Amino acid sequence: MATMSIRPGWHLPERCVTSEQAFLNRRHFLRDLGWAGAGLLAGAVGGCSRAQEAGSGPAQLAGPYPAKRHPDFNPGWTLTNEKAAASYNNFYEFSAGKDITPRLTAAFVTSPWPIEITGRIEKPMTVDVTELIELFGLEERVYRFRCVEAWAMIVPWTGFPLNRLIEKVSPKADAKFVRFETFNRPEQAPAMKRRTEYPWPYFEGLRLDEARHPLTLLATGIYGKPLPKQHGAPARLVVPWKYGYKSIKSIVKIEFIDQQPTSFWETLAPDEYPFESNVNPKVPHPRWSQAFERRIDTGDRVRTQLYNGYGNLVGQLYGLKPA
């Protein structure tokens, strides 16, 4: 008969224990950024303990929200209804059904959340998302978001430009691409266990100049609150001129590499989901047109804009002269 082990209230589960190497790397990282580190590290451990008491979810991150909206990304557009955005989500680790994903993410544990930063960089390390928020601060930006399935929304993301993190880890001269990877927890994500033909965990990639572009955001919140789990809590990528599947959710690893990586959907169907995947109304998906998009809350059909309307900001990345 199995025996039950009763643990004292101060006990930390094994996954909350930081390895010695990660602890030392983090100390050096914080010291290099000018932080004393002791209070921040204590807060991270405390957050882990509180997460166990309160269950999963990003509620522990509520302090920095809502963040101040960046004046350059405050266009006065009508935002997509928040409830509609929260109930229309692609998160294939949980389900292919958009409306049931919020319910299926209930058991998904999002705190603590260490992110490994590695590869062709001078300062590889592992750091918790709460520490990144403390280090880089948060701002709100209103972005268009366009799915390859031809639906769209306009939402206020909260986060910080990914390039702030890239600068701090100092890519080496041969770093040309950035590969991102999400969690691998089939015990918490039912579709990962069921869909064994998929190459889990989910992975994506960008060219380094795309990752460094000022529009590219590491997002930790939406609608003035921490990210709900179905939106990719606690940290996801937002690349607004590309189709939504490039904006990988729930990132656990960022790797700088010298060769172009493959991406999850590109591996499965390269003719439908190429690596670049910029929004382009003149390039149809093999199974449908991309000329129009549907707003998820109103049902309105509007013309798709090249690069999702950000062409004047990103066109030079692809050989277009600024207008």
Quickly describe the structure.
By secondary structure, the chain is α+β, with helices and mostly antiparallel strands.
Give me the secondary-structure topology.
Elements: H1 20-32, H2 38-54, H3 82-86, H4 101-104, E1 114-119, E2 125-128, H5 129-136, E3 139-146, E4 151-161, H6 162-169, E5 177-182, H7 190-194, E6 203-207, H8 208-211, E7 217-222, E8 225-226, E9 236-238, E10 251-257, H9 264-268, E11 292-295, E12 301-303, H10 311-314
Parallel strand pairs: 1-10, 4-11
Antiparallel strand pairs: 1-2, 3-4, 4-7, 5-6, 5-10, 7-8, 7-9, 11-12
Q: Spans with pLDDT under 50 lasting ≥5 residues?
A: 1-20, 35-61
Work out the helix count.
Answer: 10
The termini sit apart by 73 Å
Main pleated sheet:
7 strands, mixed
Question: Any guess at the CATH architecture?
Answer: Alpha-Beta Complex
Name of the CATH homologous superfamily: Oxidoreductase, molybdopterin-binding domain
Give the mean pLDDT.
86
Structural class by secondary-structure content: alpha+beta
CATH class: Alpha Beta
Order of helices and strands: HHHHEEHEEHEHEHEEEEHEEH
Number of structurally distinct domains: 1
